[in-house]
Amino acid sequence: MQTQYHRPASVAEAAKLLGGDARLLAGGQSLVAAMKLGLATPSSLVDLRGVAGLDAIRVDAQRVSIGAMATHTSVAASREVARAIPALAHLAAGIGDRQVRDRGTIGGALANDDPAADYPAAALGLGATIQTDQRQIPADEFFVGLYETALRPNEIITAVHFPIPERAAYEKFRQPASRFSIVGVMVAKTSGGARVAITGAASGGVFRCQPLEAALSRKFAPESCDGVAVGANGLNEDLHGSAEYRAHLIPVLTKRAVARALG
Q1: β 23-25/44-47 pair status
Q2: pLDDT digits over 152-172, tens only?
Q3: Do 191 and 229 have their domain in common?
Q4: Is 202 left (phi over 0), alpha (psi -120 to 50) or beta?
Q5: Total domains, the chain
Q6: What is the Cα–Cα distance from 73 to 156, expressed in whole angstroms?
C-alpha cells in the first residue's frame, strides 16, 4: 500500500485529513524511523510544515509559549526563551545531535512521549499546558503511560505554554550514542512549591518525584536532596543501568539541578 502525502495550509485543514491510520508528520524524527523499520505503516501522512505560524515563539511576563512546530534548535537559540526560562533553552540544546535538533519539534516530541525524551520532563517539571486545536491540557494530565498521552485520535498540538518559574534547571545522565536520558531531571521552584520531573528512569515514561518535591518545597537547596530515598520499584533495568542505579541517580541529578538553578 502506498502512503499518501498531504501538506495542508492550516490546522483546520490538517484536522480534516486525519482519520483511520493517517498520521501527523512534524519533524519526523520518530515516525520516519518507525516507518523505515516497518513498525508504522500509515495510509497517509499529514505534514504540518506548511502551516504558517505554528513555529512561533512568544514570551511575556507570565509565560513562554512555543508553537508545536518550533524546532529544538530554534528553542535553544531563542534569546527570549533563554532570558525567561534558561533551563528550557539548555534542555533544547542538549537534545540529540545537530541534525535531530534542526528537524525535531516540540509538538512531535510531546505527542510521541518517548519514555527517555527530554521535553516531557520540561513540560511536567515546569507545569506546562499543552494547547491543541480542541482544548488545553495540563501537563499533569497529559502524560498517561508508555508512548501514550491524553491526546484524542484526531487532536493536534498547536502550542505549549510554560509558566515562568522562580528558578529552574535541567540535568541529565545521557546515553552517549543516542543522547537520550538514562535519567533526566527537571527541577523548578514555583509559587506553589517545588516540582521535580524525571525522564528516562521508568518504563512508563515521565513522572514527578514526590519525596524530592516535598524536601525541596521545605527548602530549595542542594542539601535538601541528601538522604532522600527513591525506590527502585518500577524503574528501568537494562544494559545502561540497573533499577537501583537509576534510583541512585535521581537524587544525585536533582541535587545538581538545584545547584545549577541557584547559580
Answers
A1: parallel
A2: 989 999 999 999 999 999 999
A3: yes
A4: beta
A5: 2
A6: 22
Q: Model's pTM, two decimal places?
A: 0.94
Amino acid making up residue 123: A
126 and 187 in a single domain? The answer is no
Determine the Cα–Cα distance for residues 239 and 258; give it in Å rounded to an integer: 28
User: What does the alpha-carbon distance between residue 127 and residue 165 come to, in Å, rounded to a whole number?
Assistant: 9
Q: For residue 257, what are the domain limits?
A: 167-262
Looking at the fold, whether 62 and 147 belong to one and the same domain comes out as yes
Residue 1 has pLDDT above 70, yes or no: no
Name the DSSP class of 137: E
Determine the Cα–Cα distance for residues 42 and 20; give it in Å rounded to an integer: 9
Note the pLDDT of residue 39.
83
Distance, in Å, from the CA atom of 54 to the CA atom of 9, rounded to the nearest integer, reads 11
Rounded to the nearest 5°, which phi and psi values hold at 29? -70, -25
Please, what's the b/e burial string for 245-257 (b: 16 or more CB within 10 A of its CB; e: otherwise)?
A: bbbebbbebbbbb
Write the pLDDT tens digit of every residue in 16-74: 999 888 888 898 888 888 888 888 888 888 999 999 999 999 999 999 999 999 999 99
Spacing of C-alpha 8 from chain mean position:
25
